């Protein structure tokens, strides 16, 4: 069973926040603990902020590795100008560079099947240019993924409707947008 952090937990929120917020919390907690602890234990006070320090380091690493706003905008422009054949070729090449085996999916609901160290995934990306995605393409992808015993990945430049977002969360469909798509753009 794979453990998943609750989206609204304090640590999940801090991981999505600027890194310095976690460091500030760690410092404040350490100072408060140092003041409130008895004198002989005051030196242990800074350790109270250690979990927040760790979260700050993880957040800083993720933010440092994330593509810039310029790169995201460039990727959106490049991908929105592509035809499906070109876009699917970029997806295939990007997944192969990451060590996946890529084949075209023959069934309905998905476009690519990728095999990697964590198993099989089905990727749906034909509607990547749609300004808004409803729940129907996600239902088709989820059905195909269930049939193939695979993870589901949906790729879009647009937004998901509220129903589609809720469905994707419920069915554990990974939705790749913006910064995720910038990773597919050749450097």
From TrEMBL:
InterPro entries linked to this entry: Restrct_endonuc_IV_Mrr
Molecular-function GO term, any one: endonuclease activity
Keywords: Endonuclease, Hydrolase, Membrane, Nuclease, Transmembrane, Transmembrane helix
One GO biological process term: DNA restriction-modification system
A Pfam family this chain is assigned to: Mrr_cat
Ranges annotated as spanning the membrane: 20-37, 43-61
Domain Restriction endonuclease type IV Mrr intervals: 81-184
Protein name: Restriction endonuclease
Species name: Noviherbaspirillum saxi
């Amino acid at each position: 069973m794979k453990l998943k952090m609750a989206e609204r937990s304090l640590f999940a929120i801090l991981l999505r926040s600027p890194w310095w917020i976690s460091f500030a919390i760690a410092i404040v907690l350490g100072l408060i603990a140092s003041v409130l602890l008895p004198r002989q234990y005051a030196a242990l006070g800074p350790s109270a902020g250690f979990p927040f320090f760790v979260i700050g380091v993880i957040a800083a690493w993720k933010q440092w590795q994330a593509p810039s706003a310029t790169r995201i905008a460039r990727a959106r422009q490049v991908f929105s100008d592509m035809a499906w054949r070109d876009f699917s070729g970029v997806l295939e090449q990007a997944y192969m560079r990451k060590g996946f085996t890529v084949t075209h999916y023959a069934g309905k609901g998905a476009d690519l099947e990728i095999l990697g160290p964590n198993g099989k995934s089905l990727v749906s990306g034909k509607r990547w240019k749609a300004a808004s995605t409803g729940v129907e393409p996600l239902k088709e992808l989820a059905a195909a993924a269930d049939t193939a015993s695979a993870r589901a990945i949906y790729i879009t430049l647009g937004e998901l409707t509220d129903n589609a977002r809720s469905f994707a969360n419920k069915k554990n469909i990974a939705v790749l947008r913006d910064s995720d798509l910038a990773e597919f753009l050749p450097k």
